[in-house]
Amino acid sequence: MPHSSHRVLVTALSLAGFVLFWAALAVLRADAQILPAPPAVLAAIWAEAVSGRLIHHIAATLTRVGIAFVLSMAIGIALGLVLGRRPRLNQWVEPWLMILLNLPALVVIALCYLWIGLNETAAIAAVTLNKTAMVAVTLREGSRALSPSLADLGQVYRMTPLRRLRHITLPQLAPYLASATRNGLAIIWKIVLVVEFLGRSSGVGFQIHLKFQLFDITGVLAYALSFTALMLMIDYALVQPIERHANRWRNP
Hints:
By secondary structure, this protein is an all-alpha fold. Helices cover 85% and strands 0% of the residues.
């Protein structure tokens, strides 16, 4: 069996095992208001999808995730590359990075809402601030690991800055970029849900907050699992292939 087919089969069996475990717990609990069975949650997902609410709120959350992801990656990559090549500047900036890395996301979200207001700008800023430091630290290590001999090779062959970036710098940074991408998506969407839970009127987090207030566990699970399934598909279809491509040199 090809390696890719084997991986798909294992993933499918693992997810099937999760559903069976959930169904068994629901049977043992025997209280649909506390732990609804998978068919009840699937029915709720279908009802929300047919009404259009599910698509609307998932689209709102994906938009916030996409904007925050692009901003945090762009700022973090630029900052990380500069800090990795300039040790003195890194000494000054590193305490700031440590503060952002260790400051709880909930505090950043609350402060952004208090300072900027309950709007989209505050929501995106809070998520971006929470992720930028992590990207910067990852790319800083990648920048430090760049080979001086390869840089000298580019100078010997008089490569233009764009060609050096494409053929020398980016291939060396690819594993770090892939790691920052995967970790970034995994963290950002969770923070976005918290942002929506606390101060937005749309999105998966807002709907989970609404269902929570109504003690609608089936609704909470319907929205949570719908978005989790979407992010898993993005991870398997997009992020993991990029990561394998970036790390292909490790398995010649």
